[in-house]
Amino acid sequence: MSGLILKLAPKERILLNGAVLENGDRRAKLRIITPRAHILRLREALHPDHADTPLRRLCYTVQLVLTGDISDRETRPVILHQLDELILIFKDHKARRNLEQAVLAIHHGQFYKSYKLLRSLMADEKALLKCHA
Hints:
alpha+beta; three-stranded antiparallel beta sheet; two-stranded antiparallel ribbon; globular
């Protein structure tokens, strides 16, 4: 059986199809088997006021797809275009590999995977922006 597996810490909250769920006092593992379910760990959520760089704006857009606030079908071309632009900017091999994997994830409708890959690059973007300031 396939699906997204979430390992939740005690009291961790997730957004699932518009409802906030909170884990109990113990660690838990959930398998989400419904395709296209809208899931976001609230501890990973990006506040709109913090979407102030190209990568963060892209993360926020993907986050809106994860929460179901915007359509993945309509937004996918925009996301892919922004990813292509970021691939041209990031020169680090690891960062480019993560961006290329994010592109593949978006093509396969795996927005959560893409979101995690993009969030892993935030420190790299911060360093890159410092170098060009």
